[in-house]
Amino acid sequence: MKQFLIFVQKEFYHIFRDRKSLLIIILMPIVQIILFGFALTNEIKDSDIAILDESKDVATVEIIHRLDASRYFNVARYLHSQADIEAAFKTGKIRLVVVFQNKFRENLLHANHAQVQLLADATDPNTATTVTNYATSIIRDYQNDLTANAPLPYQIEPQVRMLYNPQLKGAYTFVPGVMAMILIIISAMMTSVSIVREKEINTMEVLLVSPLKPLLFILSKAIPYMFLSLVNVSTILVVSVTLLEVPINGSLLLLMGEALLFITTAVSLGLMISNVTNSQQTAQMISLLGLMLPTLLLGGFMFPIESMPKPLQFMSNIVPSKWFFIIVKDVMIKGLGFKMIWKETLILFGMTLFFLTISFSKFKIRLA
Amino acid sequence: MKEAVITVNKLTKKFGDFIATNEVTFEVDKGEIFGFLGANGAGKTTAMRMLCGLSMPSSGSATVAGFDVYKQTEKIKQNIGYMSQKFSLYEDLTVTENIRFYAGIYGMARPAIKEKTAQLLNQLNLTPEANTLVKALPLGWKQKLAFSVAIFHEPKIVFLDEPTGGVDPITRREFWNLIYQAAERGITIFVTTHYMDEAEYCNRVSIMVDGKIEALDTPRNLKKTYNAKSMDEVFLQLARGAKRSDD
Q1: Which of A120, A364, B54, B135 has its CA 20 to 30 A from that of A103?
Q2: Does A206 contact B84 at a Cβ distance shorter than 8 Å?
Q3: What digits encode the pLDDT tens for the residues B108-153?
């Protein structure tokens, strides 16, 4: 026990004396959360659109007014001929062009049929789809208002409610995602680098000759970094709740417990990495690329796993972040209890046990 | 009254087809300064690592401080000190913190550590530097400190792997004074080196060539046997036949 305390104390000396790394470790989660929460939002707001209105009647003016008034669009310019459309897109600023044909209102009133053309810049397909959806629904609203006085014989009116995230805020998925990413990178990287460092500066040899037990060595390495990671979880939660207004709907205790489990998974991955390399740089690269990429690509918070090809869907199951992402979303956003997430918890627990067993059995007591 | 603290019998280490250490046999007595000489790649470090419990022998037998190198490495570890070729203190820890850490790892009690630290710093004239980070110390001081840390827990035997590499002759001399003091206290010194002037300071030296011990005696007897003026000449005569040159 005394050996353990002395070792942990030494680790904290290392951590606190390396001011630069400490600053990065403390600030990285805050910067990431703010970046993802504010800058990299997947909502599309204030898109510049252009209008080609060959009719210029009461109806088209009303629709244009409604488009401009919504928070999704900003009417940036009026075009005068079909030829202008191409030019408008070429500026790169216009995402959508709305074209009203001649005699729009007349057709609407007398033929009961009028056409609006929506032209979107589909170089970014997701944005194009979203933008046309917004525009379509604004136009449909207008149509509903027109027919409100004369109800149609049959009408199906979908009543849509967005549960758990009524404002469709991007932060609701980014917070759990960033939490998974930060924890897995920081915990695994810090642990592996600090062990490999001992090999690099040769103190490992001296420690191996000493009576220090390998288990004690591994524990003393893991615990300080688990503590730091818990600090990170707390900062992420505080920033999310205060700045991004993402609520913690479930039990905070459960959330912290699950975070601790995931940190243990990450630390055991770090231990495994430290077994296969002798250089700090390699350890860093493996932690960054080997853990960040799968988390980003297959973790489920950047790209929906359901729409991936089957082999990738299958692969995503071995990415620990995927399970943690589900757990955090369920507990934090949906407010679910342990009963609903025990399966995911069990999977993470199993993975941790597996990684730990491997790294313990691979840990070399002898050099050769 | 001689008492062997290290006994080695036909100890061999193979890496695949390569025989790093080939059936070496020797004994080291308590309080002796035993020089373990050889060119680079002769197998010194491998032999030493087997004795420290860092490396598993392929065959042969050996005991260190009365314990078997195959089965009782934990017991061996409690009774030896080790200073490696490369410098091995923590640069971002202070002198005192380094001493406290290593002493703590060997299970020494806090009051004892405190008392002995003061005594040691005084002896090394390092008292004013007690709270200096190790990285700020000159290399010579670091080496002396590393040696003192290696014997801080009063081991029966201390293994030194080329401890004076890259150190100037004056510091080397001072370093050897520390070794003598430790030997007088009854600590057995097992030291590898390739500085032949240092070989003269040892009670007995063994010279390894291509994994085998070619000669083992006091420096004086060796010079007589090989009809040489210095250990340098003895070594050159023996090492001339060597086939391996690098680790």
Answers
A1: A120
A2: yes
A3: 999 999 999 999 999 998 999 999 999 999 888 888 999 999 999 9
Q: Which residue of B50, B73, B88, B154 to mutate against A (max A Cβ within 10 Å)?
A: B88
ipTM of the prediction: 0.88
CATH number of this structure's domain B4-239 = 3.40.50.300
Query: Chain A 263-282, CB below 8 Å of chain B: which residues?
Result: none
Domain spanning A47-147: CATH superfamily = abc type-2 transporter like domain (3.40.1710.10)
E strands within chain B? 4-15, 18-29, 33-38, 59-64, 67-68, 80-83, 157-161, 188-193, 204-209, 212-217
Q: Please name the residue that has the structure tokens 């070794």.
A: B179
Q: What is the enclosing helix (H) or strand (E) of A117?
A: strand A116-120
> Given an 8 Å threshold on Cβ–Cβ distance, is B101 in contact with A208?
no
Q: Hey, CA dihedral for B169, B171, B177, B179, is it positive or negative? A: negative
Which residues in chain A touch residue B106, judged by CB atoms under 8 angstroms apart? 210-211
The interface residues of chain A toward chain B in range 205-234, judged by CB-CB distance below 8 A, are: 205-212
Give CA–CA dist A149/A282, Å, rounded.
71
Read off the tokens for A104.
């729009």
> Would the CB atoms of B105 and A368 count as touching at under 8 Å?
no
